Every structure is written in structure tokens, then in C-alpha cells.
Amino acid sequence: MAPFRRLALIGIGLIGSSLARVARRAGLADEIVCSSRREETREKALALGIVDHAFASAADAARGADLVLFCTPVGTYADLSAEIAPVLEPGAILSDVGSVKQAVVRDIGPNVPDGVHFIPGHPIAGTEHSGPESGFAELFQGRWCILTPPPGADADAIARLRAFWEAAGSEVVEMDPAHHDKVLAITSHLPHLIAYTIVGTATDLEESLRSEVIKYSAGGFRDFTRIAASDPVMWRDIFLDNREAVLEMLGRFSEDLAYLQRAIRWGEGDKLHELFTRTRAIRRGIIEARQA
Amino acid sequence: MAPFRRLALIGIGLIGSSLARVARRAGLADEIVCSSRREETREKALALGIVDHAFASAADAARGADLVLFCTPVGTYADLSAEIAPVLEPGAILSDVGSVKQAVVRDIGPNVPDGVHFIPGHPIAGTEHSGPESGFAELFQGRWCILTPPPGADADAIARLRAFWEAAGSEVVEMDPAHHDKVLAITSHLPHLIAYTIVGTATDLEESLRSEVIKYSAGGFRDFTRIAASDPVMWRDIFLDNREAVLEMLGRFSEDLAYLQRAIRWGEGDKLHELFTRTRAIRRGIIEARQA
Questions:
Q1: pTM of the model
Q2: Exposed, middle or buried, B267 (CB in 10 Å: 0-12/13-18/19+)?
């Protein structure tokens, strides 16, 4: 018997479709359904054979589901949760995959009916590609999944959701939503903002330079363009919904950058060398932590 | 008969040792020698079997060579070129692999004896690793190599150096040194500076966050740590020697970042979305240009 009767994926893009694939492969639900506003996306999901049904309405997907996962940009969560609230069954688990967690608690929390277990989640996994065709079952393999259960959340529901992610290949940790948002601001949100910025700066160069930026991108720029090719709506919502933590980290970054800028202007090579030596050690830490 | 009699690699780190390997494999020189100030490095190079002789003195390596390549940090070029000038033979080609080109012309140019062909070069290739053991013969395969021959440079010498890089697998282009420095400032130097900065910002976080930065680095930060693990001395020299172009690009970047910062603070999602959509297109350009 599968751990869940009906898995409802609200949104079937990169993450949703990867979850559909791994849930099917690992037998995590008897029935896998999704919703998407776009007909083209629903047709793709059905053609790929990764869901049993694809609905235009989130409520139709969530009806009768014992696990509902929001896999759309976080800016949609408030409306979607209001929409599906009337059909959610007592005992159902409601979760998400959004990259911010305080805003998710703020937007979904008030709409959760009594008896429904609301446990926000965030798999640290993704690629720069979008759409149901870009997903793959191995996306979560060896990746962290952070759960931020609210105080007093049902222990059994947490355990079931944890087992779901573990079956998808993830290592699950629990965290406070505010702490999650701070950690992700520096490990993910700020890097994306910076990558978007520098790629934007390059596109604004005079034409004679711009074509060469693409040609000679292997010098380092290329890594930034991959990050800056991530889904625009998803990332817009993340920055708006984690404003405080992102602005705080951005402030620190800007100060540090100004310090280096001054060192370059005044030819203070020792300051540059000191930092460049320090950052090398961090890479070693990551390689040792087996994340590289 | 090999195209060169004696190839002298001044410095035998990642780039120098990769050149030694590919020159040996492709039969580009009858004899391959190197110099390194550090005894440990010389011993490694000899133990790896990638050079025939390893000298402590650059002049001893350059003596009798018809191709001399500087493969040390650019800050060493002025002294090294003065040191080897007396032993350089007429007809020899003197080149380098430095990531800046105007400063190289400034530092080496005045020391070049009559009859020696000075043709600066820059292969757009590398990894974050250092030392003779980190090189590999395929490093230059499919990569650009930019030559910046001075006005009036000997056409035959340019053709011979070009053929050397092509035999190493590179596609060779010629460029004006000032233009090179501008292009590299945005495609390579600024990305490195930013990566160093953000990794530095992360290391300065309070301890409770810092360990988690490493743990959850897969969210985007990890790509930056790889770049920020590059050789500290080499990169210190690059920033000091391409100061003007780097500060110019840094100024543009900081303005663009401030614009996004303001958009986040004021919740102007449309501005974020507009940029994020634009940057996605650049990535497509790079993929189409087969550099990704």
C-alpha cells in the first residue's frame, strides 16, 4: 500500500514534475494529480505520463488528496490556499516547496482549515530550467529538504512528510522559518540577485563589447549566466517575500565590495590577497562536506 | 621535426604544466624545460615527467629557447623579463598567458631585446586548482586563446605562436590589448571579484549561520565558492594590473545592484521581472555560441 492515497501537485513545473516522477517511481501515492492554469502545461504533463489527472483548478486537484504540495511561485500561495481550503479533508497534509518560509506561513497559515496539517517545506534542489519537461526523478537525490513545522504540529504528519522526502532521496532537517530565511538569503537568494545583476550589467554594454561577453564567457561569467537563467516569476516572488533578510545580506555584501574596490583603487594588494586566501578555505569546507 | 627546438615555461603551475603536457603529447618542442623558484615545485614537475629540466633561475630555462612563455602571476613579469633579457636569442618568441594585457606590454615591453618577437597571449582556460599536479593536456581544448601582437610584430612569429596554440586545441583570435582588458574585466575579472566578495561576506557571518552556509551551499552559493577558490596571488595581480577597467565595470555593476536593491525595498516586482527575463536570453546566446 502506498504511503499516500492521492498526491496533489499544485503546479507542475521543474519541481512539481520531478516530484511526480519520483513519487510514481517510488510508489509514494496511489494516485498522482496536478493542477496548472495553463492548458499547454496540463497537456504536457499528461503526455509525459507523469500524472493521472491534470486539472485547471487547484481545488479540483486538492479534492480528496491526503498530500497537497504547492509547487508554484510563492506569490501565488495566498490565493491558492484560499481557493483549496473548502475542499481540504481533515488529516490531509498541506505543504509546499517554496524558497522562503516566513512569507509562506503568513500567506497560507490563516487559510488552513482545522484538522489539516500545514507543514511548510523547501527542497534545496533545482536547475535553471522550467516546465514539466525539465523535471527528473533524481533531482532530490542527496539534497537537503528543510521542513519548518509550526509549533505544535502533529508529530505523525511530520513523520509522514519526512518519509516522503526521504523516499525521494533527500536528507530532511527541521528549522525555524526565520532562521531558514536568513540562511537561504546568503546561500541562495543573494547569489541569484548578484548573478542577475552582473548578467544585466553585461547586456547593457555597448554593442562592440556585448557580443564578446558571450564569446569569452568561459572566464567566469558563464557560471553566473546559468544562475541568472532561473525562472523570472519564481525569483521575483522570492526577493519580494524575503525582503528583510535579502536587504540585510545585500548591505553586508555591498560594504565588503566597497572595501575591495577601495583596495584596488589604492593598490592595496595585501588586502586582496588576505581575502582571496580566506575564501579558498571555504571551498575546502564545502568539498569536505560532500556538497561539491 | 618539432615546430620549436626548446620550449621554456617560466612557471609550472596549472597553466604551465598543462602546456608542458600538451606540448609533449603533440610533439610541439624537442625539449621542454621550466623554471620555478620553489624547489618543491621543480621536483614535482620532474617527478610528473612533464619537463626535461627544471631550473631555479628563469634565465637558465630561457637560455637557448626559441619559445619562452611566462606562466607566473603577472606581477612577476617585469622582474622576470629583465632577468632573462640577456640570454634571449634573436628570433626567439617571448609570450605569456597572463589575464591582463596592457600591463604586460608595459612591464615586459621595455626589456625585450632587438630581434626577439614579443607577442603577448591569454588562453581563456583554467580551473580553481593550482600547482603542476593540477594541470592536464586537455585544458585548452576548444577554448579561445587571445593574442595581442604589438603593431609591426613579425607575421611569421605570430603564425608560429598561433599554430602552437591551435595544436594545443585552442581557437586563436587577435585583439588590441586595451580591448582585451575591457572584455576580460566584465567576463572574468568582475565575476571573480564578486565571487570572492560574497564568499568573504559569508565567512564573516556569526558562527550559527556560517556552518549552515556550507551545509546548504547547493542553492547557488556553491558556484561562487568554486570561482573564489582560484589562486590568490594570480588574482591579486590581475586586479592591481587591470585597475581601470575593473573599477569601470564595478561602477556599472554597483549602480545596477543599487537599482535592484531599491526595487526590492519598495516591492517593485515588475522591475525585477523585467531584468530576470532579459538575463535568461543571454544564457540562451551562450548556449547557442557553444560555450556552455
A1: 0.92
A2: exposed
Q: What is the pLDDT of residue B292?
A: 46
- Chain A closest-CA separation from residue B183 CA (Å): 6
Domain B4-175 has CATH 3.40.50.720: yes
* Residues in chain A closer than 8 A to B223 (CB atoms): 191, 223-224, 226-227
Residues of A in contact with B183 (CB under 8 A): 209, 212-213, 216
B234 touches chain A (CB under 8 A): no
The reply to whether B179-288 shares the fold of B4-175 is: no
CB–CB contact A272 B239 (8 Å) = yes
Which of A172, A192, A201, A204 to mutate to test binding with chain B, by most B CBs within 10 Å of its CB? A201
What are the domain boundaries of chain B? Answer: 4-175, 179-288
A261 contacts chain B (CB < 8 A): yes
Taking contacts as CB-CB distances below 8 angstroms, the residues of chain A near B206 are: none
Task: Tell me the C-alpha distance between B286 and A282, whole Å.
Answer: 29
pLDDT digits (tens, 9 = 90+) for B209-226: 888 888 898 888 988 999
Residue where the block lists cell 501565488: A76
Superfamily (CATH) of domain B179-288: 6-phosphogluconate dehydrogenase C-terminal like domain (1.10.3660.10)
Q: Convert the pLDDT of each residue in A7-22 to its tens digit.
A: 999 999 999 999 999 9
User: Residue A70 pLDDT more than 50?
Assistant: yes
Sign for the pseudo-dihedral over CA of A188, A194, A197, A201: negative
CB-CB neighbors (< 8 A) of B213 in chain A: 183, 186-187, 282
> Which amino acid makes up residue A128?
E
Angle at B230 between CA B33 and CA B46, to 5 degrees: 20
Sign of the Cα pseudo-torsion (B132, B137, B138, B140, in order): positive
β-pair partners for B172: B145
